[in-house]
Amino acid sequence: MLPATTALLILELAGVLAFAINGAMTAIRTAHLDIVGIITLGMITALGGGFIRDILLDDLPPVTFLDWRFLGTAALGGLIAFLLSKRLDRLIRPINVLDAAGLGLFAVTGTLKGFEFGLGVTQSVIIGGITAVGGGTLRDVLLREIPAILHSGLYLIPALVAASLTALVVTADLRLVPWTVVAAAICFAIRMVGVRYDLNAPRPRL
Amino acid sequence: MLPATTALLILELAGVLAFAINGAMTAIRTAHLDIVGIITLGMITALGGGFIRDILLDDLPPVTFLDWRFLGTAALGGLIAFLLSKRLDRLIRPINVLDAAGLGLFAVTGTLKGFEFGLGVTQSVIIGGITAVGGGTLRDVLLREIPAILHSGLYLIPALVAASLTALVVTADLRLVPWTVVAAAICFAIRMVGVRYDLNAPRPRL
Amino acid sequence: MLPATTALLILELAGVLAFAINGAMTAIRTAHLDIVGIITLGMITALGGGFIRDILLDDLPPVTFLDWRFLGTAALGGLIAFLLSKRLDRLIRPINVLDAAGLGLFAVTGTLKGFEFGLGVTQSVIIGGITAVGGGTLRDVLLREIPAILHSGLYLIPALVAASLTALVVTADLRLVPWTVVAAAICFAIRMVGVRYDLNAPRPRL
Questions:
Q1: Whole-model pTM above 0.90?
Q2: ipTM of the complex
Q3: I want to staple C163 with a disulfide (CB 3.0 to 4.6 A). Which of A31, B130, C49, C128 is the partner?
């Protein structure tokens, strides 16, 4: 049994906040939306991955929908992005940093929830990956961009690395905190290196 | 307890019909699809919002899928749009009117279903908004347009207004009919004013 | 009662393999993705239709997610496409053939699952059609193309033909194998004729 400790709740809320600000900033930067569109896209980016996870795990209605702390944090993130938008004329860097942070945090919490619902190791790792990339994929589809899971080699891979490390932590019965935080940090680091040097996995030679 | 009265069923079927004709007309106008594509897009626009609502509420299979009256009404709407398409050379106006009508009707019925399934006020209002904008969002994504929830300030707002008024009707224990019809009409009016004057919520200054 | 015979399992796995190679090839050809993107899109194309079916049928978590044979077959298909990509410089023909094969196979197995879960004839046929076109629709949305269900007249129609024939087999209590294989083959044939001669259903005259 995995206790839903306060530490894990904080990790998930931190992921929600990171993705909400990220989604809202992307809305400001890419599509010049108004405040409603900005907060909406922030909330979808923040909560979408968890919704997909909970649909697949049959944990409905999604806990992130029922619990006001998640809804409130997601809305807050959108609002923060809107209020800061005047100063954030170069948004690319924080957008990528927040996306990488959310990616690692959701890979960890998604994988833990997979184990909590009795899935095997492979399925828990995959559900962790889906949780991590789900919100950003919805964000990209709504903005008519090809999702990062498809075109950016080091997006799904760091998420799966963090999910696999989390599975290792669970199966080896290590302490969840701090080890899952380390897993999220490794995902973050790989992703940021990938963004910095524009790295990709091998492509087919056509 | 909210009785599923005949009046509410009629409201929901009216919303299905409005969205089905709207989606099918959009298919005719935007993408020059054949009859299969037209009816398909009409049915997705009409039933999509209710499907998303029922997934989140864990009311599966969706009642609008099991009940032939919803499937039939949605298919009928698509067929009507196809048959009338010769005369409808200027489709923008009816497309917007039908979309606004469906928006208000689904915001009301979605919110009522949220209460029926035991959600709190905030969650019921949000589920009403999702029901209202869900079908149109699927329609726009399939046609590769940025969804109205993101770029059109007065789309989600009137839906949330109607949902909030419906929540007020429920919590104040007023008679569902006519008050929810009034809520849907207010949503319709706000949306049409927004379309007419191209109004938006505040945008960030970049 | 429909026994989940080995034959039906093989049909469904064949559909998964066909769609996985198809999705991965489309990723190679359309978007020049790296190996992660290719396998991801292959798996989404292969498993997406079944996921949507299982969400609507409330059979969660999806059996194709829990069962390693489906996950493995889907990943294998993506890998095959990646390894063969050097030789496949003209990918259009196999892409269409595999898509048509998956379409027929999933229309059959989706319809059978609808009956298995107690749906009526109409709903079982529709769920068969959704299963058949779901994965390809997700593939097209992620690649920012208008989905084949909308623009290609003979895509949803052959799927619904196979689903209807499957419903006939079930209600007339015929032997599932070989008759459902015949239904899948008829779907495949109609689709390939449609692709060859670029056939569509009637369009509205504007």
A1: yes
A2: 0.90
A3: C128
